[in-house]
Each structure stands twice: as C-alpha cells, then as structure tokens.
Amino acid sequence: MPTNVLIAFYSRNGSTEALANAVADGARAEGAELRLRRAREFVGPETMAKAQGWAENAARMNRAYEAPTEADAEWADAIVFGTPTRFGAVTAELKAYIDSLGGLWFQGKLVGKVGSVFTSTSTTHGGNESTLISLYNPMAHLGLIIVPLGYADPVLFRAGTPYGASSVSGQNNNPPSADDLEVARFQGRRVAQVAGALKAARVTETKG
C-alpha cells in the first residue's frame, strides 16, 4: 500500500518551488504517491505588480500546480509544508491554507499523520529557523507527528537545518544549491519512510 504525501507550498520566485520538487523526488524514491499543491495569492494585481515578476511567476506556477484543498490533507498520510520567510515567519498565503483545515482539525482527521516543513529566504540569517519552528505550532494543534531532520544524513552538516530543508536565494534570486536540494530529497525520503511505517502499523493493528 503506497504512502500518500501532500506537499503544500507557497513560492513567489521559484526557490521554494524547487525545494518542493526535491522533497517530492525523495518521497517518490521511497515509493510514495505525491500531490504537489501551490497555495494561492489573495491580494489583487495592483499589489502583485509592485514586485517584479510576481504576477508572471504566479501565473506559471498556478498552471503547473493545483491549489491545496481539505481533501488533499485528508488523503495524505504525510503533509509537508513549504514557505518562503516573511519577517521571520510563514507567508500569509500558506497560513491561509493551514487555517482552512479547521474542519478536519475539529473532526480529528489529521491526528497521527506525519508533518514536516521546509523554507527559503532571500537573506542569510533572514529567519529560516524561526519560520520552520513557527510552523511546528500549528502542526502540533492539528495533531501531526512532527518529523524533523536532525543530523541524520551527512549533507545536514553542509546545508539545511535540523528542523527542515532551507535555502538562501540572495538579492539575485539564486536557485537552491546542490546541497540544499539534497537535504530536501533526504527530507522527502525520511518523511515517506516514517509515514509508511506508521501506516503499516495501523494496518497491522486493524487486522489484529
């Protein structure tokens, strides 16, 4: 029985998108079924026009990825959230999706699923770790089993954080480095492995 992994992310310039796809590659390597979903903007075109490339990038990514839904979260055995940093915390776009899961939270339908997070910033020390840790709070409220990375793979000594994959794009919107992407792939593998083990245990318990 395959493990279902939802990667719900927001990306403006493509850095978080690249990490999301690397997480997906890692999870697929473990045989997981994937849904990649991009959270949508809720500001108008006037606001988007103030940031160069925002509208164009959003249009491209919205063609490539559906918006995340409650049904996606219910389907998933693991939910991986990805977000750029906004003033050291999660973007409003991704937070709006998390906030929309209140119905599933009330029914307890997310309890026991795996949760993990990744992020990107434009500046060094720009809030990578604070953003990741801030997402641990809603994951705990949803009842997710939080899966951090620790230093369980040698690549974590070169990139990423023990809390989740990360990258720094700089002012030129540099893409994630090879090590950044390797951390993200490791995160996908780790999430799929843990979620798969938990799913197998539940199936065994049900049959028993």
Automatic annotation (TrEMBL):
Superkingdom of this protein's organism: Bacteria
Keyword annotations of the record: Oxidoreductase
GO molecular function: FMN binding; NAD(P)H dehydrogenase (quinone) activity
Top EC class of this enzyme: oxidoreductase
EC number: 1.6.5.2
Ranges for domain Flavodoxin-like: 5-191
GO cellular component: membrane
Record NCBIfam families: flav_wrbA, PRK03767.1
UniProt record similarity statement: Belongs to the WrbA family.
UniProt-recorded name of the protein: NAD(P)H dehydrogenase (Quinone), Type IV
